[in-house]
C-alpha cells in the first residue's frame, strides 16, 4: 500500500488498537501489547514485536505502519538543546526540540505544517499554513526524541509550543494529549503538559471543559491592543480583554495558573510604560509571566532588548506583585527561533 495512505499505529488510542485486533480476528489484548512495544520498548517496526504472532505482524505490516515520519537532521547546541527536523510522508518538514534543564527534559512539539497566524517576529508563519498535523505526526515527535535519548534520560514535560497554533488543530491535538497522558501511552502527567495558544477563544473555552487540567500558556507579547494588533495580526479579531477573560475562565474551571508568554522586542514592547500597562492588565489574574528575549531571524529586522532592560521590565512586573521571570534563550546555535530550521530546509 502507498505509505502516504497507510494509517500509522501512533494515530491510535488504545480502544482503536484493540478494535483493530478484534476486527482482524485476534484477541483485543494484542492491541495493548502492540502499543506497549511502541511506548515502552521503543519499537518502530512490527517485526520487532516478538510476542505478537508472526502471521498477524505480517498482516498488520501490509496495511498499517508503526511510524509515518522520520528524523531528517538533529542540530545540537552547546547547552544540550537538540533541534530535530522531522520529515513527513508528503515531504513536508516540521521541528521538535529537546530542552535540557537539570532533571527536567522538555519536548517542544509542532502541531501544524506552517502557521496561519503570521506573528511578525516568527519564522513559522512566513510560508503560511500548509496543513494540520495528524495525531500520529504529533505523537511521533515525542517518540523520535524518546527513542533517541540514552536510557539515563527521560522526557518529563511536553509543551505544544512548536510550529503552528495548537488550538487551530483542536481534535488532533487533544487526542495527542490524551495519548501522551495515558498510562498505556507516554504516561506524562497533565501537570507536565502545556498547550500554548496565541488566544483562540473558542478553543480555550472548549479546552476548559475537557477535564484534562493541562497547563495553558497564552502568547501575549503586548501590553495593549495597539501594539498587539501590529505584531500578532489575529488580535484584531479577538482583542486582549476577551483573551484575558477566557484565561480567567480556564483558571476557574481547572485551577491551573495561566502562563503568559511575552516575547520582548527592542523598541516595540519593552518600555517602562509597557511593563506598567501589562501589570495593570493582568491585575487580579492568577498567572505567571515568562519574558522571552526575541530570537531574531533575518527575515525581520527585529532584535531583543539588552538583558538589563529585560530584567528591568521583569522587576517592574514583580513590584506589581506579578510572578515574572526572564527566560534564558536556549539553543541559540541551532536556529532556535521557532520554525527557522524548517524554513531554511523547506526553501
Ligand atoms: S508565534 Fe506561534 S502562533 Fe504566531 S506565527 Fe509563530 S507559530 Fe504561529
Report on the structure:
The protein has helices at 14-23, 29-39, 54-63, 135-148, 170-181, 201-208, 225-231, 235-238, 240-254, 272-281, 307-319, 340-346; strands at residues 7-8, 64-65, 70-76, 82-87, 93-101, 104-108, 112-114, 129-132, 157-160, 193-197, 215-219, 258-264, 287-293, 323-326. With 347 residues, the chain is an alpha/beta fold. The strands form 3 sheets. The chain has a 10-stranded mixed sheet. It has a two-stranded parallel sheet with strand order 1-2. The protein folds into 2 domains: 7-65, DNA polymerase, domain 1 (Orthogonal Bundle); 70-346, TIM Barrel (Alpha-Beta Barrel). Helix 1 packs across helix 2 (29-39) and helix 4 packs parallel to helix 5 (170-181). The structure holds iron/sulfur cluster. Iron/sulfur cluster binds next to loops.
